[in-house]
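User: Hi! I'm working on a homework problem where we have to compare a predicted structure to a textbook description. Could you give me the structure for the chain below?
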Amino acid sequence: MSILQTITPENASGEVADTYAQIRQAWGGVPTAIQVFSANPFLLRHQWEYYGSVMQHPALSPALTACIRMLVSQAGNCAYCIDMNAGMLVNLFGWTPEEVAAARRDFRDSPLSDREKTLLGLVLKATRDANSVTPLDIEDARSAGWSDGDILDAVNHGARMVAADIIINAFKVERDF
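Assistant: Happy to help. Predicted structure tokens:
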């Protein structure tokens, strides 16, 4: 589990039980990385609703968002998130372990489209040194066909991953996969 007192699915009631039921229905279980948010039912619900919006994003592919999570987590040294998202890329999106390793070395070597790599590069730049982002970076993303909403959503996803990495690492969330 974690060093923070959390609510397990077996002991959940009320709003936490309701949210866990939605998570189980969608994912088949409740990962410990989500259970850590049960210490505050509002944050648990908010986190789950956010994941739902990302999974249904009209422009950001699931492989792109998994790659964002994996590479942002790599910079944040969150082994749980790196491995979880690497596994998703292999098991859900058909990447080979070699493609995942190549992406981890240099995102430009990933099997993402050039358009996606442009946006991923912007997200990585923003999450590593937000002050280094320039108007040219945004224009490059626009020129690749991304709307300002897509750009915001992708950078927000990376920023939220930084926060998730901090929470998972700080509270010593154990792997459950």
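For your comparison, note the following. The chain has a mean pLDDT of 97. The chain is about 65% helix and 0% strand. Good luck with the assignment!
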